[in-house]
Amino acid sequence: LFSDMIEDMEGNYWFASLRYGVFLYNTGEKSWRLLKHKPDGLFATRPTRFLADDAHRALWISDFSFGVFRYDFDKKTFDYNGMDSDKEGYLQSSLTNDLTLDKNGDVWVATNSGGVCRYSQKEQKFTTYSMETGLPENTINSIAADLHGNIWISSHKGLTCLKPTGEIIKH
User: Fold this and answer.
1) Distance CA 47, CA 19 (A)
2) b or e along 42-67 (b: 16 or more beta carbons within 10 Å of the residue's beta carbon)?
């Protein structure tokens, strides 16, 4: 089962497979590669979504096991953004469902039971919005940014619209 696919800034294709992980098709070499676990075991094993962040020369991968990974096209490396529910600045759930990019270049992550998290490119940390800050539910199924800079989230309790500051506009 494939859950997402994307063309990156170099013209290559990434495929998210919930069963096998991340596949990369290199168009220049006309070759397929299954991106394998790193020695520490941390890599996307159940990827759910990709997000192109061309302004920061990156590709984001949300995973339904380990959180979020960021591929840096300049360094050719992956950065791991995991969860730590005891610390501010981290994801509050490692079960991530969806990603979006706002007009400020920040990445928003929809999680299962951890609310929605905004990754500030400037501060390089996450801010979490959850039931504690007014969301109707902490499991967010999907997320999208509109042309006005608002963030729309969907959950089993309906649609919610947030300002980029996290303030709820309507539910």
Assistant:
1) 9
2) bbbbbbbbbbbbeebebbbbbbbebb
pLDDT tens sequence across 119-136: 999 999 999 999 999 999
CB 12 within 8 A of CB 5: no
Residue 57 CA to residue 170 CA, distance in Å, equals 33
- Contact present, 20 and 43 (Cβ < 8 Å): no
Q: Token pair 């995973």 is at which residue?
A: 63
* Token pair of 61 as six digits: 């991968």
Which residue ranges of the chain lie beneath pLDDT 70?
A: 37-42
Q: Which residue, 85, 88, 79, is CA-closest to 113?
A: 85
